[in-house]
Amino acid sequence: MSGNFRKTIFITGASSGIGKVTSLYLCSKGYKVIGSSRKLSRLDSLIREANNKGEVFFPVELDINLRDGEKGCIEEVLPKLIAQHKHIDVLVNNAGYGLWGPLEGISPEEMENQFKTNVFAPFRLSKIIAGGMRKRRYGRIINISSVAGWVTTPFNGAYASSKYALEAQTEALRMELWPFGIRVSSIQPGLFDTDFHKNMVQGSDAESDDLPYIYFIDRYRQKHKKWRKVIHKSIRIAELIERIIESERPRLRYPIGFEARAGMIGARFLPERLYQWMISRTSM
Ligand SMILES: NC(=O)c1ccc[n+]([C@@H]2O[C@H](COP(=O)([O-])OP(=O)(O)OC[C@H]3O[C@@H](n4cnc5c(N)ncnc54)[C@H](OP(=O)(O)O)[C@@H]3O)[C@@H](O)[C@H]2O)c1
Hints:
two-stranded parallel ribbon; seven-stranded parallel sheet; alpha/beta; binds NADP nicotinamide-adenine-dinucleotide phosphate; Rossmann fold
């Protein structure tokens, strides 16, 4: 417990989609929610919506991509935030984006940026927050991963490799922190109603005439249109996060959405060739 709030939550990428819906939901459930965005003004509508319901949301400007030592980086902002709010009970590593395109059409710099946001930032945030949690022998770290952390499709290799890395990070951290009362879990969403697809970054050479993928990319887009009809409401993830926070022994992984569960069952149990053939056929 912290003050009159049930618990103190810090969530990255609160300006949109899953982060915004989760922030509002947890505020309404009596938690103290601190949420970050790279630009403070992007949190204005969230602050207003919370205020209109008589609730308080605590905004913070943080660019999780800045290097250690740069002004406004994680290592500078987070300790101040912890001191200001006394402690943080729950970290939700949510901020992330998808880098899209055939791997040959992605530059090393684009790949590095993908890993900076989706992998290195959760690592740096967890590292700083775990110390305080260990001392109080209580904490939850929830990584918003993806079904792509288990199921790889063509043209999603960059994003999937970042989420696979986040899965490994979650697994190791969970075992390392378990003896200290800290529970680490990942959520693996399928397709949810956010700006994720609008905000996807395409590899700079994905559609280059020098590469042979345009035909397959067109096919991918056609097939993907059908998948886009399978969209779930982000509030389901917000409710799941509350369940994880309140659970004594939350699970390691939570796939959410039937396509996420089906993909994971296929990846685990189908013969490799059959599985790869099915994924290719349904993707491009
Ligand atoms: N929606 C889905 O179908 C889906 C499926 C599987 C997994 N996910 C995961 O869910 C998480 C949340 O995504 P969303 O679906 O809610 O998408 P969204 O609506 O695009 O929101 C993404 C949030 O992350 C932050 N963000 C985006 N790009 C960033 C970057 N380059 N550096 C730092 N922060 C960045 C944004 O904050 P600011 O721009 O304000 O800083 C924004 O608040 C992501 O980790 C994503 O991989 C989503």
